[in-house]
Amino acid sequence: MSVSRFQNMNHVFRSAAEQWAQKPPQLTQNQEVARLYRKSLKVLLSWVVDRDVFNEKAEELRARFDTERGCSPAKASRLLKEGRKELFEWSHPDPYCVPWMPGGSLFMRNPPLPKEVCFPDGDAPDDFPKVLLNPDMSPCKEETGKAATGTVIVDFSTKDMY
């Protein structure tokens, strides 16, 4: 695990997080650009409260991404690096988060009970949901890197889940 991901944690929490952290998936360059664009929109939403202003700034942001579409792979790598740096510089000190995510006011307020608690004898009905949920109430999926099938560590300072 890279230390930079856990650099703002104390050494005890960092060692626990490194034990349980899931490996990030290998992404194509298009996926990296899409993630950078999405994170940029989320950072923009943290800074801009008015929806009309947000839509205007989001269009400007989309135009910046569209002007460089189809560039060479070397230039795309450089632009990704610059984009990540700019995203870091514009990061909000207290980012907006939806209420049911870590750090939100509804986080784990009414989590579903485990199957073993609901049906201690093991006779669950056929229509009982077989989907496992993460602490943020999203479905567990191995391909997304968010498969909380075991212990999950929630860092409330960054509002992330490992």
Helix content: 40-55%
Distance between the termini: 12 Å
The tally of helices reads: 5
Count of beta strands = 2
Largest sheet: 2 strands, antiparallel
Based on helices, strands and strand pairing, what is the structural class?
Answer: mainly alpha
Side by side, the strands of the main sheet go 1-2
What is the H/E order? HHHHHEE
Q: Unreliable stretches, pLDDT < 50, 5 or more residues?
A: none
* Oligomeric state of this protein: single chain
Output mean pLDDT: 80
SS strand fraction: under 5%
Shape: elongated
Rg (C-alpha, Å): 19 Å
Q: Care to give the gist of this entry?
A:
It contains five helices and two strands, in the order αααααββ.
What does it look like?
The chain is mainly α. It has 5 helices and 2 strands; from the N terminus they run αααααββ. It has helices spanning 11-20, 29-47, 51-67, 73-89, 115-118; strands spanning 154-155, 160-161. It has a two-stranded antiparallel ribbon. Strand 1 (154-155) and strand 2 form a beta hairpin. The longest helix is centred in the first third of the chain and has 19 residues, at 29-47. The termini are close together. The relative contact order is 0.13.
